[in-house]
Amino acid sequence: MPNIVAFGASSSKNSINRKLAHFAAQQVPNAHINLLDLNDYEMPLYSTDREKEGIPEKAHAFKAALQDSDGIIISFAEHNGAYTTAFKNIFDWISILEKPIWCGKPMFLLSTSTGARGGKTVLELAHLRLSRDMPNIPCFALPSYKETFDEEKGIVEATHLAAFNETLEVFVGQL
Ligand SMILES: Cc1cc2nc3c(=O)[nH]c(=O)nc-3n(C[C@H](O)[C@H](O)[C@H](O)COP(=O)(O)O)c2cc1C
Fold first, then answer.
1. What would the DSSP string read from start to end of 125-167?
2. Which contiguous run of DSSP H or E holds residue 107?
3. CATH number of residue 23's parent domain
4. Does 119 contact ligand 1 (Cβ within 6 A)?
5. What 3-state class would DSSP assign to 70?
6. Ligand 1 centroid from CA 148, angstroms
7. Could you identify the atom of ligand 1 that is nearest to the CA of residue 119?
8. Dihedral (CA of 10, 11, 17, 21) sign
């Protein structure tokens, strides 16, 4: 039974990316899902000065969740073409802990937004950066969330569902 850590890279209470990440984790056969909420990992804004004051326990806790997993699913919210501050802050804090940052686990990177690109800009940014530690990371951007995703059924548009399933298969094959 693979242990899958999944989260939306957003601190929105009703994050659509958290919903997409959860949906993706539910499609992994026989998975045990650890759905994280970034609000549980709110820390001081990273700086080298703050680091000298000590690394927050929440950074270690987040890293421990990654370490305990067999695979990681992240769905990125896009803020001004980049990561949300909530995600970037956690990324910065865990990046000063032991390497590799994402524990060398298989990853599945997603994004969605209500716009036509579905957060593709931040997804490409994340893919470029995270591929340094892990080759062949599958990626999928879901555009026009309001029309393409149903909270009960998941992805409801056939072309996007087929593309999602192709990338999911790659991830499952890497577990
Ligand atoms: C400050 C801010 C910046 C945003 N910038 C973008 C953007 O660059 N591209 C985009 O597609 N959506 C953008 N959005 C819309 C978000 O994609 C939308 O709020 C989405 O719901 C965020 O995902 P979440 O619900 O998982 O937090 C932005 C929203 C905010 C509040």
1. HHHHHHTTTSSS--EEEE-SHHHHEETTTEE--HHHHHHHHHH
2. strand 107-112
3. 3.40.50.360
4. yes
5. coil
6. 17
7. 11
8. positive
The length of the chain, given as a count of residues:
175
Q: Give the Cα separation of 72 and 64 in Å (integer).
A: 12
Task: Specify the residue for token string 């927050």.
Answer: 56
Q: What angle do CA 17, 79, 49 make, to 5 degrees?
A: 105
Q: Report the nearest-CA residue for atom 23 of ligand 1.
A: 77
For residue 84, the model assigns a pLDDT of: 98
CB-based contact 129:95 (threshold 8 Å): no
What is the domain range of residue 97? 3-174
- Among 79, 87, 124, the mutation site with the greatest number of ligand 1 atoms within 8 A of its Cβ is 79
**Is the C-beta atom of 75 inside 6 A of ligand 1?**
no
- Structurally, the chain folds into a number of domains equal to 1
Which pLDDT does position 134 carry in this prediction? Answer: 87
Indicate if ligand 1 lies below 6 Å from the C-beta of 11.
no
**Residue 133: what pLDDT?**
84
Residue with tokens 């990316």: 17
The stretches in the chain having pLDDT less than 70 are none
Ligand 1 pocket check for 115: Cβ under 6 Å:
yes
